[in-house]
Amino acid sequence: MRSNLTVVSEAMVHNIIFDGNKAIGVKAYFNDKLHTLRCNKEVIVCAGAIQSPQLLMLSGVGPADHLKEFNIPVVHDNPNVGAHLIDHCAAAIPVILKTEARIGDYKGSGLAVTSFYQSEWAKKNTPKAGADMQIVPSAGPVFVGWGPSALMIQIFGDNPPHLHTTKGRIFRNLIYLFRGWIRTLLKSAFLSVMNFGIVCNQPQSVGSVRLKSSNPYDHPLIDPGLLSNDADRARLLEGIKKVRQIYSSAPLAERIEKEDKPGSNVVTDQGLL
Ligand SMILES: Cc1cc2nc3c(=O)[nH]c(=O)nc-3n(C[C@H](O)[C@H](O)[C@H](O)COP(=O)(O)OP(=O)(O)OC[C@H]3O[C@@H](n4cnc5c(N)ncnc54)[C@H](O)[C@@H]3O)c2cc1C
Question: Which residue has a Cα nearest atom 17 of ligand 1?
Fold first, then answer.
């Protein structure tokens, strides 16, 4: 407990308040009303890779033309805000096993047995940059690591309720309440599935985050820009082929019934990407 610290949970910041170009506080919704919170020194924006730029743009910091589309008064014209979204591009090649997946006995994620390597592309082009690729195996119940957000996207599609809204909170609490059942259900559904995920750890593709509206509860428009760079496409393709080579090698090969996705009939580079 610190007398100079107050933590408020379930709060939704609507925007940062500026005096000229100096941040002097935030407007945040909690306990059923919108509060104005002032600061003496600084506002630290730590709303994550997606919502930090969203919050800045909602507050008037971002590309002026874009902010004007939503009648948001421009505090600082900066085209870089939301323009450098970089995420790992990854592919999953799940296979159906003939027997239950024993690797699923691991507690936690497949990261326990992950492997890093340098792609042929990197060996040729950026040899000093180290391992740029990762293969992440997971199997059976290990898949059950999915969080509520992933489940919400499965259920609600592109527009899941915000976790900060009442609907989002109810859903999150329901998942928490029934987590035992959900886990058991998922376990039985994925018992004989195994997957090697291929992750591009030094991606060069760049995407963007833009506002959909001036409403802080609207999800922003996210263009992940994944695979928009040739280098990422070359590396991912190489990784997919490497994983298929592992699947077809002993002793794994004899345990695999079939490739689930994309399926062994997909063989062209275009089809695989
Ligand atoms: C699937 C996945 C796997 C990952 N695996 C790893 C890993 O293995 N190792 C690793 O080091 N990193 C990993 N990361 C990355 C890591 O999770 C992030 O780098 C880290 O969480 C970033 O922390 P942060 O505090 O900046 O943002 P976040 O953790 O995103 O926190 C932002 C917080 O701000 C809140 N928020 C957003 N908008 C508002 C608003 N308007 N008002 C109030 N609150 C708001 C959000 O609810 C959230 O709680 C992974 C990320 C993902 C998505």
Answer: 48
The β-bridge partners of 240 are: none
- The domain ranges of the chain are 12-77, 89-205+226-272
Task: Please state the pTM of the whole predicted model.
Answer: 0.84
Across 18-37, average pLDDT? 96
The whole-number pLDDT of residue 106 equals: 46
Question: 11 CB less than 6 Å from ligand 1?
Answer: yes
Task: Of 110, 170, 173, give the one whose Cα is nearest residue 145.
Answer: 110
pLDDT in tens, 136-183: 887 665 444 455 556 666 677 767 777 677 777 787 778 778 777 776
Task: Tell me the average pLDDT of the chain.
Answer: 87
Ligand 1 pocket residue status of 47, Cβ below 6 Å? yes
Token digits for 207?
């995407």
CA distance 255 to 121: 31
Q: What burial letters (b/e) apply to 174-204, b meaning 16+ CB within 10 Å?
A: eeeeeeeebeeebeeebbbbbbbbbbbbbbe
Could you please state the CATH topology (level 3) that the domain comprising 89-205+226-272 is classified under.
Cholesterol Oxidase; domain 2 (3.30.410)
CA distance 200 to 97: 26
Report the C-alpha gap between 196 and 92 in whole angstroms: 6
